[in-house]
Amino acid sequence: MSEPATHFELFGLPQAFVLDAGELDRRYREAVKLVHPDRFVAASGPEQRAAVERAAALNEAYQVLKSPSRRALYLLNLQAALDEEATVQDPEFLFQQMEWREELEELGNSADFAAIDTFRQRLIRARQDVDQEFSGVWQDPAQRPRAERLVRRMQFLDKVLYEVRQLEERLDDF
After folding, report:
1. What is the CATH T-level fold of the domain 91-172, as seen in this structure?
2. Where are the alpha helices (DSSP H) in 11-112?
3. Would you say the pTM of this structure is higher than 0.70?
4. 3.40.50.300, 1.10.287.110, 1.10.238.10, 1.20.58.1610: CATH of 7-66
5. Which of 21, 26, 86, 164 has its CA 20 to 30 A from that of 42?
6. Which domain of life is it from (predicted)?
């Protein structure tokens, strides 16, 4: 029996950007049970190694599929390798990034929790908009450049949302 070719096939899921997170979790748990080390205690060395490798593949696939930005990048790479070195021509978003960075810096200096929460909610809405837009274009080869820009926007928004969480944690410590 041959191994599934994609992370989606590993879990018996359709190759899609929009996934049911609960279903992914359920299928992951079921798959991991089958390769748990306890099931291979009496197995040969090669069988034990194969189980460990399978578990590692399941974990990697799960981590990719549960993250929308990593899933989007994975989907694009399944179609054609993404040029990681390509310069993104997205001046509108570059300007938006600078504004968000300045706002985050000001929020860090102000320690205004309500303003930080409002900022985080705006970023989450922006991220949802990008996800929705990506969902509508990723399968269209003519929209490939747009899909690549959207993935990079997702990655930036993930990073800024992470930095907002770090800021909140730092301020909570005071």
Report:
1. Monooxygenase (1.20.1280)
2. 21-34, 45-66, 68-79, 91-110
3. yes
4. 1.10.287.110
5. 26
6. Bacteria
